[in-house]
Amino acid sequence: MKWQNCGGVGSRCVRRALLFVFVWGLVMIAAVQFRHVENSLRETPTAEESANDLLLDDIYRRREIMKNRGSSSLGLSRYLLQRSSADSSFSNSGGSSLLTTLTTISNNPTKNPSDLEPLLDKRPAKTEEELIEEIEQRIPSLPLAYWNKNSKYPAGQSKTKGNYSCSNLKYPSIYDIEFNNVYWQTMRTGNGTFQLFGAYYDRRKLSRIGPAVRIVGMIDRIEPTVKTHCQFWYDGERDPIIVETLEYKYIWYPKWGNYKQGIYQPYVIACKIPQSHWSKGPPASVSMVEKNCDTPSNNLRVIYNKPERKKDFAVCVKGLDFLHEDLSVRLVEWIELISLLGADKIFFYQLQVHPNVTKILDHYQKLGMVHVTPLTLPGGQPNVPAFQHMYLTKKTNHKRQNELIPYNDCLYKHMYEYEYIALLDVDEVIMPVKDATWQDLMKRVLQKALKIRNETRASYNVRNVYFLDDLLHSHGYFKGMPKYMHMLQHVYRSQNFTKPNQYIKCFHNPERVVTLHNHFPLACLGAGCTSYPIETEDAQLQHYRADCVKSLKKTCVQYRENSVLDTTIWRYKDQLIERVTRTLETLGFFGPS
Ligand SMILES: *[C@@H]1O[C@H](CO)[C@@H](O)[C@H](O)[C@H]1NC(C)=O
Ligand SMILES: *[C@@H]1O[C@H](CO)[C@@H](O)[C@H](O)[C@H]1NC(C)=O
Ligand SMILES: *[C@@H]1O[C@H](CO)[C@@H](O)[C@H](O)[C@H]1NC(C)=O
Ligand SMILES: *[C@@H]1O[C@H](CO)[C@@H](O)[C@H](O)[C@H]1NC(C)=O
Ligand SMILES: *[C@@H]1O[C@H](CO)[C@@H](O)[C@H](O)[C@H]1NC(C)=O
Fold it and tell me: Membrane-spanning residues where (predicted)?
């Protein structure tokens, strides 16, 4: 509100001021009531100071009490508070929406407030187990179940185990962990701060370092020199096994820029499991510390998803940043097409998306076709919705460096579950030219590759070709296909592909990749990062854009002038139209049914 304007226009201003005082008074009354309730809840004789008696208990208890009391004045003030906070998240004028709520109620004097039936969530309070389950889903890196078990060990003298013996070291309570921007945990050292995102058990056959835990995170140092340690916590053991950190693997080339101390840089950190523990399977969790016996400020669940059999293809999509751009309809077409082509599952990471996109993602997540992992930027980087988008647009090097976190997290989380992992944007499709599916394509490609050299490659790359938006508009829409199906309608592409190895995308072989970059692996196990170039007669990376990437501005003119009709995608036309249209109908995109 602009208070300065108040000097001039008199009566409007007085009215506004009065309104404000009125609203403010009501808020204060509600707040006082609320605090009163809180205080009276605190007085309930329940607070044993046992370390195990976590906040969870407390929340649970409070909800129980709330439920049992439910006096009408409490109900109303809670309702008002909830309404106002919920509304203000949709508009910037929290005050005015509160006002609407209040006037609606006071304009209705004939109704007794005790007859009002607010639309509250009436599901029963959650049990502690249910709460833990929910928290585990929200923060997958937290070793909650194990912590719940482990915290029963009494503090006391340690026996010597492994190379170090620490007298004061105990398992960190989840309340001692230093979180950073929700999904990150922090370790400060004498020379550099670490932001840790996830930890994974790596026992791949080709790994020469033997079983190890790899940690994906960022360090605000280039070429970090600080010595650190990993504390491995095992189920059923009171004390951690402590080892020196083996390596910090940089996921970036210095020549790409941002090569400066003080900027958070992406790393995969490795700690070897000592031989004494090789047979024990994965540790339950891992903490990083500087000095071996430091009490940790972080504790990550060690992820190990190893099914009996691998499925074929996983697709990973970097943090979606489409807050205002309503990509929903195009996303449906893309998800359906990628699934028709053979993706077993699509793993999205999400920064900010439009509510309509959330609808789409929720729908497909329920069907098990996609999985969405929420994501934030670590350190001091912005996470406020629109501001974050502006930051990522302006700071492209930071954007690229941050993208490497979801890509490598996706690789390590799913390396035992899929034969191949592809990193795609939602405007890219790896299109087989002769085969109907990726499975058939890879059969053909493997035969060719093995004939040249009899070994699996770390990746199989596909050449990029642009399907630019305006190549359609000079030709008009195609009949018999819905206009809202962007890819089916855009079947003119530039004649030339971008150069070999430029803007390619790969099917990565997760048995061999150590660090992943958007376009190719940077470090690999075994015989290095070998990549087989899939011939353009077998497959192409169809890239649907309004324009080429900036660095190709000049060539882009030529791409535009030399376009060809390429209707490879129409092979999927019938199924695609049917699936996309049905989904849009189901989700109410054509109005209420
Ligand atoms: C801190 O680490 C950087 C490398 O990341 C190194 O160049 C520098 O010498 C270190 N400073 C000290 C005081 O050890
Ligand atoms: C333990 O110490 C021995 C001797 O100092 C060393 O060879 C070994 O690598 C250490 N093990 C670990 C896991 O750090
Ligand atoms: C290729 O290597 C596999 C084992 O890696 C072997 O079984 C096969 O006979 C080899 N094929 C050729 C043609 O050398
Ligand atoms: C296409 O590529 C060929 C071979 O690289 C080149 O000679 C030609 O100029 C390119 N054409 C266009 C329109 O870019
Ligand atoms: C998509 O968003 C617009 C604007 O918020 C809204 O009017 C429309 O109803 C939404 N569509 C669906 C299917 O929810």
Answer: 17-34
Place of tokens 């309930």: 44
> Is residue 93 in contact with ligand 4, taking CB distance under 6 Å?
no
Long-range Cβ contact pairs of 205-209 (< 8 A, separation 24 or more): 205/511, 206/511, 206/512, 206/525, 206/526, 207/525, 208/525, 209/246, 209/270, 209/272
Tell me the C-alpha distance between 219 and 160, whole Å: 31
User: Tens of pLDDT along 431-479?
Assistant: 999 999 999 999 999 999 999 999 999 999 999 999 998 876 666 788 8
- The whole-angstrom separation of Cα 423 and Cα 419 is 14
Secondary structure class of 337 (helix, strand, coil): helix
The finding on whether 558 has its CB within 6 A of some atom of ligand 4 is: yes
Q: Dump the DSSP string for 195-208.
A: EEEEEEEE--TT-T
**Considering only CA atoms, which residue is closest to atom 9 of ligand 5?**
589
Query: How confident is the model over 385-405, as a mean pLDDT?
Result: 92
73 CB less than 6 Å from ligand 4?
no
Task: Please check whether residue 539 is in contact with residue 444, taking contact to mean a CB–CB distance below 8 angstroms.
Answer: no
The set of residues, in sequence order, having a beta carbon less than 8 Å from that of 488 and lying 6+ positions away, is 333, 478, 481, 482, 569, 570, 573, 576, 577
* Strand-pair partners of 231: 242, 287
Which ranges of 43-91 does DSSP label H, i.e. alpha helix?
55-69, 72-88
Residue 288 to residue 304: CA distance in whole angstroms: 18
Residue 7 has pLDDT above 50, yes or no: no
How far from 475 is each of 199, 229, 469, 472, 486, CA to CA, in Å?
A: 51, 62, 11, 5, 14
Strands 300-303 and 192-202: parallel
- Cβ of residue 564 lying under 6 Å from some atom of ligand 4: no
Kindly state the DSSP code that residue 96 receives in the 8-state scheme.
H
Residue 150 burial (10 A CB sphere; 0-12, 13-18, 19+): buried
pLDDT of the residue at 17: 62
Whether the CB-CB separation of 213 and 283 falls below 8 Å is answered with yes
Q: How many CA atoms lie within 13 A of 442 on its CB side?
A: 22
- Per-residue pLDDT reduced to its tens digit, 347-369: 999 999 999 999 999 999 999 99
Backbone phi and psi for residue 84, each to the nearest 5 degrees, phi listed first: -65, -40
The answer to whether the CB of 314 falls within 8 A of the CB of 438 is no
Residue 407 phi, psi (nearest 5): -60, -45
Q: What is the pLDDT of residue 474?
A: 63
Q: Is 217 helix (H, G, I), strand (E, B) or coil?
A: strand
Indicate which atom in ligand 5 lies nearest the CA of residue 354.
2
Q: Which of 163, 245, 286 to mutate to test the pocket of ligand 2 (most atoms within 8 A of CB)?
A: 163
Q: Calculate the average pLDDT of the chain.
A: 83
- From its phi and psi, is residue 244 left (phi > 0), alpha (psi between -120 and 50) or beta? beta
| 276 CB within 6 A, ligand 2 | no
Does residue 562 have its Cβ closer than 6 Å to ligand 4? yes
- Interval between CA 495 and ligand 4 midpoint (Å): 8
pTM (predicted TM-score): 0.78
